[in-house]
Amino acid sequence: MSDADTQERLHTAALVEPHHERRSDRRARKRSAAQIEAAARKAKSREQRTRWLAERAEARSAAYLPAGGEAGPTQLRMPGRLKLPKHQDTSATLAGHYPFLAEAGLGSAGVFVGQDLYSGGSFVYDPWVLYQRGMITAPNIVLAGIVGSGKSSLAKSLYTRSLPFGRRVYVPGDPKGEHTPVAEAVGGKAIILGHGLRNRLNPLDEGHRAASASDAEWAAQLAARRRELIGALAETVLDRTLTPLEHTAIDLALADAVRSAEVPILPMVVDRILAPSSEDDHDRRLAEDGRLVGHALRRLVAGDLAGLFDGPSTVRFDPSLPMMSLDLSRVAENSTLISVLMTCSSAWMESALADPAGGQRWVIYDEAWRLMTYPALLRRMDAQWRLARHFGIANMLVFHKLSDLDNVGDFGSAMRALASSLLANAETRIVYRQEADQLGSTATALGLSGTEQRLLPALGLGQGLWRVKDRSFVVQHQLHPDELVAFDTTARMTGPS
User: Fold this and answer.
1) What is the per-residue pLDDT for 13?
2) What are the angstrom distances between the C-alpha of 191 and each of 7, 172, 184, 277, 316?
């Protein structure tokens, strides 16, 4: 070893050991360090053994079965291994047995509604898309919920979110005026009618003409619609069906009025029913045959219902707008007038619905329990529901509770049968929170299971049970802040005094 290596080693040793330390002192120092380390290892070992013994004693004191199981007849052991045959099934069937499978929903195409509370995923609904996929055969909807449960906001968001997809919205009767600000916000129009207003509605207007209709077809359609509308108005006021003699009196008076004016008005028809021309009244009995129906229609032009139907229309139903609504909030206290206005607006709407080029449309019947008490309106609603696929429309009935259907007509009557058929022709039933005394009737009407029935009184604001044909979903409806402002129906209760 060279002198340089020796000097480097001595220099290094001087950094970790005392300078000029004696060998005996260095050995004693190392023995002391080794003893301290050994004592620490023993203390740690004793601590670990003490902890292990405590855990072992605790385990022995617990009531655990022996490793080999209990002895005796309760041993429950098999002589061999348990072998089960393999089973293969669909996920739809296994979902009821395997708790970690979630409902896949109705797909991602359509209108976003909110969150599926069972799966946590987004819930999307569109009756036209579901019909195209064969998942439903009837695009009609029944929506029920107590006041303040959020059903009106759901209805408004469903049809307004459909507008970007090219759909349009018709509200043939809005008793509370809730849809008027929505119609104006989306670029549509609300027709407001009521006593003291300048607006007039002529039931005999020509209405919308389809581009594909020839002159002969249009003349026949217009004559049939006018005749049917006058008859429906008379039945509504009389609260009964018309006799054959009364139908004859209406037909002859309407034909005479059409001959004398290009666009007849209701007072012309009333005058000709009460005082028919000699050319039509050959046996001098026509005036007597139509006397009651003439005086019933006279209420619309000169009686307590006057002021709305006694002249040419000052408003027009434009089916090309994104949304049209008939605001009846100014006549909400007169149920007969509401039914008459609804009958007229339904005739307007039907002429637009019959247009093959009209596209896909929503038809919203809000506060439907008030409208279904009139036979003429109920028959019109039933016809529209049966022809929904032909017209390309999706009807929506909005109720407070499904037991409202029991108030339509007497048990076993034709009106009760029509009301029940509306529910049968709606494969989408949405139920928001219901009172406890309504659970039985709701479950019976919709065929709910016991679990679904128990869900209804516990649903929160905006939460609903969706029954889409044979599938069930519990959905939390979600609103954008702008929608929340536009759809608010509590402004008078929550605003400043």
Assistant:
1) 41
2) 110, 10, 11, 36, 8
Which pTM was predicted? 0.71
Looking at residue 287, its amino acid is A
User: What is the predicted pLDDT for the residue at 187?
Assistant: 92
Contacts of 154 (CB under 8 A, 6+ apart): 113, 143, 430, 432, 462, 464, 477
H-helix segments, 261-329? 266-274, 286-289, 291-298
pLDDT at position 10 is: 45
- Other Cβ atoms less than 10 A from the Cβ of 126: the count is 24
- Nearest Cα neighbor of 467 from 91, 133, 135 is 135
Least confident of 173-177, 344-348, 386-390: 344-348
Neighbours of 362 (CB within 10 A): 23
Amino acid letter, 75: Q
Burial of 379 (0-12, 13-18, 19+ CB in 10 A): middle
Neighbours of 368 (CB within 10 A): 27
**Token output for 202:** 């002529």
Cβ-contact 459, 465 below 8 angstroms: yes
What is the spatial distance between Cα 272 and Cα 65, in angstroms, rounded to a whole number? 100
Using the Cα atoms of residue 245, residue 246, residue 251 and residue 254 in order, give the sign of their dihedral: positive
Distance CA 247, CA 254 (A): 11
CA distance 226 to 343: 12
Rg of the chain over Cα atoms, rounded to whole angstroms, equals 40
Q: b/e map of 128-158 (b: 16 or more CB within 10 Å)?
A: bbbbeeeebebbbbbbbbbeebbbbbbbbbb
More confident residue, 149 or 74: 149
8 or 305: which leads in pLDDT:
305
Q: How many CA atoms lie within 13 A of 299 on its CB side?
A: 17
pLDDT of residue 69: 61
Convert the pLDDT of each residue in 207-229 to its tens digit. 777 777 888 888 888 888 888 88
- What are the pLDDT digits (tens) for 291-312? 899 888 888 888 767 777 878 8
Instruction: Identify which of 308, 312, 316 has the alpha carbon closest to the alpha carbon of residue 208.
Output: 316
The contacts of residue 236 (CB under 8 Å, 6+ apart) are 336, 339, 340, 343, 374, 376, 377
What's the pLDDT at 316?
79
Max Cα-Cα span within the chain: 154
